[in-house]
């Protein structure tokens, strides 16, 4: 529903000889660890105007559209990704799960049905009520799954938001809810992004 793109400068493509079949190491910019290998299938110049309109609605003031035109490079590289190492996080480590780890955690808890609540904002009492009612109507448990990656300018930082989520967890009926962070950048893509999350 939303393209996840590796943008690269034309100069880099020429200097490194990036073409279909090439293998590129993806690294963590913080500690230079290898994270994955990208086996290149495509190198292309995207239609950014079309992407802006179809994904984000076309409003030039939209933060993701500004980012698309002002920060992203002119070419995209696509292909298959092979994981090498897990990305290291240095905050809230116990709340960061891979999808497989979440499934395993649910199994350990004996959960067979899960209602997930994805948010980027601090939760309040109405959110808690909404999630409890959704879970009870489905005889399910609740995963509170907030985005803690890059958000839009002016949003409350993720440290503050996570403290709010942690303070709210004891307000759920015993054993009903767990908190697991979603390390994605918000793109403000409306319905397309909701489906993606």
Overall description:
With 197 residues, this protein is an alpha/beta fold. 34% of the residues lie in helices and 22% in strands. It has a four-stranded antiparallel sheet with strand order 1-4-3-2. Strand 5, helix 5 and strand 6 form a beta-alpha-beta unit. The chain is globular, with a radius of gyration of 19 Å.
Largest sheet: 4 strands, antiparallel
Q: Into which percent range does the helicity of residues fall? A: 25-40%
**Arrangement of strands in the largest sheet:** 1-4-3-2
Sheet-strand content, in percent, reads 15-25%
Number of helices: 7
**Poorly predicted regions:** none
**What would you call the structural class?**
alpha/beta
Element order: H for helix, E for strand: EHEEHHEHEHEHEH
Gap between N and C termini: 10 Å
Furnish the topology, listing elements before pairings:
Blueprint: E1 6-8, H1 10-16, E2 23-27, E3 34-44, H2 48-56, H3 63-70, E4 75-83, H4 99-109, E5 114-119, H5 125-137, E6 141-146, H6 158-168, E7 177-179, H7 190-196
Parallel strand pairs: 5-6, 6-7
Antiparallel strand pairs: 1-4, 2-3, 3-4
